[in-house]
Amino acid sequence: MRPTLLIGLLTLSACAPRAATYTTIPVKDLRAAQEKGEYVLDVRTDAEYREGHVPGAALLPLADLGARMNEVPKDRPVYVICRSGNRSAQASAQLVKAGYTRVFNVDGGMNAWMSAGYPTQR
């Protein structure tokens, strides 16, 4: 391959739009955001939520997210949490695909939140 062609291809790939994505954060970052009043979205079931959740977190189970996504604000960061981080990663991907640009998945979910000794609400 000729050097100028290679440089052109590299330039094109560097300028290509990147797929939007979410950021995975540790619970300490969620705690700081939660203390500032940021929007926290809990995507667990009703029963799991009632057992204890991040104070102030909005409940929207993952199974209902597609139909109720309009309830999630687009004009502010969205911190997504579940039990372990799996469902919140799925929800975060759905939100990004729907055009949300500031989405944060909480690594370890409520398991990590409680292990860190942070407060829960019932």
TrEMBL record:
Keyword field contains Signal: yes
GO MF annotation list: thiosulfate-cyanide sulfurtransferase activity
Transmembrane annotation, as ranges: none
UniProt keyword terms in alphabetical order: Signal
Keyword Phosphoprotein part of the UniProt annotation: no
One Pfam family hit: Rhodanese
Entries under PROSITE patterns matching the protein: PROKAR_LIPOPROTEIN, RHODANESE_1, RHODANESE_3
Signal peptide as annotated in the record: 1-19
Domain Rhodanese: 34-122
InterPro entries reported in the protein's UniProt record: GlpE_sulfurtransferase (IPR050229), Rhodanese-like_dom (IPR001763), Rhodanese-like_dom_sf (IPR036873), Thiosulphate_STrfase_CS (IPR001307)
The protein's name: Rhodanese-like protein
Gene source species: Deinococcus grandis
Organism lineage: Bacteria, Thermotogati, Deinococcota, Deinococci, Deinococcales
